[in-house]
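Title: Comparing notes on inverse folding

I've been comparing how different people in this forum approach sequence design from structure. To keep things fair, I'm posting one structure and asking everyone to reply with a full sequence. Here's the target:
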């Protein structure tokens, strides 16, 4: 499954619904939750052991965030990468 996460602040219930092998793409304001110094750091690090986490490069650039400021292991992708994720993972679930 591919989870598209738009919500900020991030809901713990959303993280609990992410299964092993799922992919998660953080978009818009949700990218703020991916910062190393955020309160979600330990939850995201744990989630990275069973799932792949992605962020859209245009969303972090818009907010002045460098990839080095993100929790280690989060993959930065472009729109082409987003299209690839949607073709590789079915179904797609959006979280607003």
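Reply #1:
Here's my take.
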């Amino acid at each position: 499954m591919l989870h598209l996460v738009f919500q900020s602040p991030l809901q713990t219930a959303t993280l609990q619904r992410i299964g092993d092998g799922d992919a998660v793409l953080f978009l818009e304001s949700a990218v703020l939750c991916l910062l190393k110094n955020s309160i979600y750091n330990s939850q995201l690090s744990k989630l990275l052991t069973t799932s792949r986490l992605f962020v859209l490069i245009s969303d972090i650039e818009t907010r002045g965030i460098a990839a080095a400021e993100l929790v280690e292991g989060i993959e930065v992708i472009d729109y082409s990468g987003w299209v690839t994720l949607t073709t590789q993972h079915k179904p797609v679930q959006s979280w607003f």
